[in-house]
Amino acid sequence: AEVSTQSTGSSRRNVSGCEQVWHLGMNLNPADGHYMDYLTGWHTGSAIGSEAKALSMDYLDRLVWKEPVDYLAIVRHQHGIVDAVKVFQFKYWGLSMKERFQDMNPGRVIASEGGPIQVSVDKNAPNLEDDPIFSVDGDLALNWWGNYRASRIMITGGFTQGDLLTYHGLGNHMNCACHSGSSRDSNYRFEISNTQKCPYSSCSKPVVQGTDFASSSYFKTGPVYGNYALFVSLRADRFPEPGTELERLIETC
Known about the structure:
This protein has 253 residues and is mainly beta. Helices cover 2% and strands 31% of the residues. It contains 1 helix and 18 strands. Strands 1, 2, 4, 5, 8, 17 and 18 form a 7-stranded antiparallel sheet that branches. Strands 7-9-10-11-14 form a 5-stranded antiparallel sheet, with no helix packed on it. A two-stranded antiparallel sheet has the order 3-6. A hairpin with a 4-residue loop joins strand 12 and strand 13. The longest helix is centred in the middle third of the chain and has 6 residues. It is globular, with a radius of gyration of 17 Å.
């Protein structure tokens, strides 16, 4: 993991007076050698990565993560250029991302209602047929687990009841005491899984994006579809369209 070199927070606050502001809370790169699995960072809020590489490596902004937010934008990007985005309004307002991801017991939180309030995808965006966020419809699900398997972020259309290996999303673990935030076997950590039919009885090695998984005995490497950034806001409900170059702070006034 990269040593954290994050500032005290002054650079995260806009000074223009615009209230329609998005802050980068997390970035996931599934091939940077760091495992942002179910148990890493999400519920502790510990700083991960550096501001200089916030949109190219795994990253968690510890200050943004503890601020109250009402909107989440999941942004797939290619070297900092947006190619797909979904925006959700949280069902329960006024909680921080850290608080939302600490809700692990019982967890299984359906965090939005009525699906995304924005879906914007570049007409030339590749690899949409099994993307864990953009190939499926439904609401935002957090801390979803069962039978020791778990995903931090999922879309409800991406899983089926009774078939636990069809849970696919961001921040995953296949052998954890997920309700308490501890691992039963660290070899089962992985960052991003695509949507696929992979029943436990007949599929022992699901395909995951990139190389950020703990053991090749349990997973198969697959192509990287992009980085996945999590931008959060208290008031902004519309994210810039595909083609936008990302920064850690985005004003939409």
